[in-house]
Amino acid sequence: MMTLYERDFFTWTQEQAAALRSGCMDAIDRHHLADEIEDMGRSEQRAFASRLAIIIAHLLKLRFQIERTPTNEKSWRNSVITQRRQLQRHLEKNPGLKHPVLLNDILESAWDDGRDLAIRETGLDPDLFPANCCYTLAQLFDDSYWS
Questions:
Q1: Residue 124 in contact with residue 63, Cβ under 8 Å?
Q2: pLDDT for 7-33, tens place per residue?
Q3: Cβ neighbours of residue 94 closer than 8 Å, sequence gap 6 or more
Q4: Closest of 127, 121, 125 to residue 56, by C-alpha
Q5: 67 and 99 in contact (C-beta within 8 Å)?
Q6: Which of 51, 61, 92, 122 has the maximal Cβ count within 10 Å?
Q7: pLDDT by residue (tens digit) across 44-103?
């Protein structure tokens, strides 16, 4: 027989929230609730990596796409500025993401995604782009860094 968690996730969330608020610990689905809380944390990590990947993609396009219009360049720079600001806000709300080991993992993931995005959007030869990350986190966050 399917559990409420499996049949109707929304209703399950509402019932779990009500049980927590009322202190009715016998009604708590500890296993699934713990999984969902962990997933919420991973979601914050994925959002952070996604923004970082966009910065990487646009910095790579600025660096390697020689033939570009002024409009493209302005759009990429504006995107980097916006993403940097959003990353700072994200870190303010989630300081646990600043753990060095976690940041390294996030940067690796973001590099792969950002590099792939730059390759797809430019149509340039993938071999033109470095295989390994050529940016430090400090550079990616630095409002004056554009290479």
A1: no
A2: 999 999 999 999 999 999 999 999 999
A3: 44, 48
A4: 121
A5: no
A6: 61
A7: 999 999 999 999 999 999 999 988 889 999 999 999 999 999 999 999 999 999 999 999
